[in-house]
Specification:
This protein is α+β, with helices and mostly antiparallel strands. The chain is built from two helices and five strands. A five-stranded antiparallel β-sheet has the order 2-3-1-5-4, covered by helices on one side. The relative contact order is 0.24.
Length: 153
Amino acid sequence: MPASKSAVIKRQDFPSGTTGRKIDLITNFYPITASETEVHQYEVIIKPVDRPRPGGDEARPAFTKEENEERERRLSKFTDTYAAQLIKKFMAGSEGFKNILYAFDGGKIVYVRKNVSGVNSQTIEQNCRGKMVTFHVTLNKVKTINTSEIARY
């Protein structure tokens, strides 16, 4: 595939190379326009709420280490399947996050432009393969990112 012709974007404070040979380079990024603002990063924690089991837990033998690892792997895959739907419900049902734009990476991080303090957790019901499952969803503030560096670049 031949390289496409496009504008060269480079920082003005870095001079071009003076040694070596020139090469054609294709990259996977797009030029963006950014304004200076603050973006707040939140960690997403999604845990299904344990339901009581028929016969009680006392009647069941303890899980082995391998059984626990397999259980955690299946639980993580199950939770990831419904993560985007759960975050959408969380945002709609949260007083602090209601009606604001957000970016969810599909896994463990949400970015918003509003700093929300206080407790950011909810219990949410989700239809999972025809069965209602209760999840506890928590957003913990990780850091504030100032986009001035991106805007300058």
